[in-house]
Amino acid sequence: MQQVLRRLQQAYAAFFKRGYGFPRFRAAARYHAATFRFGDGLSLRKDGRLGIVGVPGGIKAVWHRKLPKDATIATAIVTRQQGKWYVVFSVEAAFADACGTGTVGIDLGLNSLVATSDGEIIPAPRYARRAHTAQRRRQRALARCQRGSRRRLKAKARLAAASAKIARQRRDHLHKLSRSLVSRYQGIAFEDLNLTGLKKGMLARSVHDAAWSTLVQFVRFKAASAGAEVVLVDPRGTSQTCPSCGAIKPKALKERQHRCTCGCVLDRDVAAAKIVHRRAFG
Ligand SMILES: [Zn+2]
Q: What SS3 state is found at 101?
């Protein structure tokens, strides 16, 4: 009951602050989270198990990372998503992330998710594409079920669980990639991409799977807490310009190599990354 009251208080406070959007009724089926003040109903045992009041014994947990040493836990949110249980701790800690040195330009692509101006190429993992056939099968199974039936509910849960898994894999990969970029560089430049057109076209699925904007967003907030800088540059012609002599060298999408008359031979995406780097940092 305390939790419900706290939530209600929060919902009204947010409503008065923004000045519109009256808090709506939340059905029990939409209620998936419980917020504990740490130590009040939820505690942490020495062996890493969770203690929740009313639940006998300690609850086993898989820790995805250690708590910072000097951390004090403020709140714990217990949620259930697609039949899996998660606990999120909000923590107060006096630690600062460190960023690297030097600057880098980054070309975002579909063949290679990231190509850096230092010549590093990270292929796009294509999680959704790999799972595509199985997902379509689950979608068909759902469409065949009778509305309101128990089977339909089960088919829906299976589809949602599989989608959630793809999303988790994608996020995990992007978190690790953005962390590695921020810990190696102090200045990171991206193209300022406008994706609305691309997201509708033939490449829509690949563009969605690559999740460029999520990557830029992750790098941004990690950079902000580590004291690194993110620069967005004009994307026009980055893949058509020679990084060594500046000549305009148009090439079709299928041409994977940059070959210029000045003798510069580079991977196409690395060449573009070098242009991004120059536009951002000179
Ligand atoms: Zn050239």
A: coil
3-state secondary structure 26-78: CCHHHCCEEEEEECCCEEECCCCCEEECCCCCCECCCCCCCCCCCCEEEEEEE
**What are the boundaries of each domain within the chain?**
2-92, 103-126+178-281
Contact 268, 239 (CB under 8 A): yes
If you measure from the C-alpha of residue 281 to the centroid of ligand 1, how many angstroms do you get, rounded to a whole number? Answer: 20
Give the span between the Cα atoms of 111 and 124, in whole angstroms: 6
- In the block, tokens 């701790």 appear at 89
SS3 for 258-270 is: EECCCCCEEEHHH
On average, the pLDDT of the chain sits at 89
CA of 265 to the centre of ligand 1 (A): 9
pLDDT tens digit string along 60-118?
999 988 888 888 999 999 998 888 899 999 998 776 778 889 999 999 888 888 999 99
Looking at residue 144, its pLDDT comes to 96
51 alpha-carbon distance from chain centroid: 30
Mind telling me the catalytic residues? 107, 191, 269
C-alpha 210 to ligand 1 mean position (Å): 30
- The domain 103-126+178-281: what is its CATH number? 3.30.420
- Round to whole Å and give the CA distance between 84 and 60: 13
Alpha helices in the chain (DSSP H): 2-18, 127-130, 132-144, 150-184, 204-210, 212-226, 268-281
Angle subtended at Cα 212 by Cα 206 and Cα 213, rounded to the nearest 5 degrees: 130
Average pLDDT over residues 46-56: 89
Q: How far apart are CA 30 and CA 10, in angstroms?
A: 17
Cβ atoms of residues 174 and 211 within 8 Å: yes
Beta bridge partners of 257: 267
Separation of 241 CA from ligand 1 center, angstroms?
Answer: 8
